[in-house]
Amino acid sequence: MNSDEHREGLAWLADILRCSTESLVSELIAGDASPRKFYRITTADLQTHILMLSPATENNERFVLVQRLLESKAIPVPGLPRADMRRGYFLLEDLGDITFWQALENTPKAVEVDSLYHGALSVLASLQVIRSADHVLPRYDYTELKRELDVCPDWFFSKVLRLDLDKQAVALFGAFSERLIDAAHAQPQVLVHRDYHSRNLMMSSGSLTPTLIDFQDAIIGPVCYDAASLLKDVYVVWPRGRQLEWLAHYWRLLTETGQLPSDSWAQFIQWFDLIGLQRHVKILGVFSRLWLRDDKPGYMRDIPVVIGYIREACIEWGDDFPELLLFWDWFEKEVMPTASRQNWYAGS
């Protein structure tokens, strides 16, 4: 958004706050992977608000819909006193600057890290029992899951690495995708945030309960999707043993509330790994698109982490699902030699 839109947004906010635009101090704060921009606005009496400017290309109607839904169910989300969806102006509660990621960086003790993850997983468990969302949100259907997976060959293989996939490679990727889509649909379908990771959870001082942001793409989808987003986070990497400890905590929360049977733990791990694999294959394409289309190259330095997650899941479940092992064998032979020579890979 340009400076004119910023000025118009400030004028809109000044009218709501019944003050002059000259009395407002505006500071651009860190944004996200979208075209949206966020400004911290300080008034003459030192009250702060967030002005979000979001173009029409973004999911503005869904943002308001999900915010109202989650707020009505006591899920912590930022307050939204006013919105002009036509112009893309949103007045939001100021949640401060501490993300879950930053809280982890400042938490050296393992017991405190456990508490942070338990808090985030407790909120997630509460989110996923909201049944009223079934009637207002779209579903993670075959078309959407396939569209996401295809972002990888379209952007990472073809545009970033300039690889030409022959018919055999296309067929191999197709069989791999079908396996992941089948696995996704085998899971119980619940309300999914869709980007539940350390940079989309805000923390307040003295609280272990995060507040959710960036929820406009929420959907009805696999029960393990958000857990995989959090525990197989691209920005915070933990050994598999730690991932499974926290996953077990989450699984117990779901079994205790009757969401899952008590003998489902082994199946739950498989669901977790396979939907995580779907997400990370998608991320290869999404990060590539952010670089080439949106001029945001910084995401590429996290590609090695993403590939590591993909390798781990394919090897873990390759004996059960041969499509996974075939995909990884092809990836290792045909993709890694080119990927590993890239500056963003070698410098990570």
Could you describe the 3D structure shown?
The chain has about 350 residues and is an alpha+beta fold. It is built from twelve helices and nine strands. The chain has helices at about 5-15, 60-70, 100-105, 110-125, 140-160, 165-185, 225-230, 240-255, 265-290, 305-315, 320-340, 345; strands at about 25-30, 35-40, 50-55, 80-85, 90, 190, 200, 210, 220. The strands form three sheets. It has a five-stranded antiparallel β-sheet, with helices on one face. Helix 4 packs across helix 8, helix 5 packs across helix 9 and helix 6 packs across helix 9 (about 265-290). The longest helix is centred in the last third of the chain and has 28 residues, at about 265-290. The radius of gyration is 21 Å and the shape is globular.
What are the salient characteristics of this protein?
single chain; 348 residues; alpha+beta; Phosphorylase Kinase, domain 1; Aminoglycoside 3'-phosphotransferase, Chain: A, domain 2; 2 domains; five-stranded antiparallel beta sheet; two-stranded antiparallel sheet
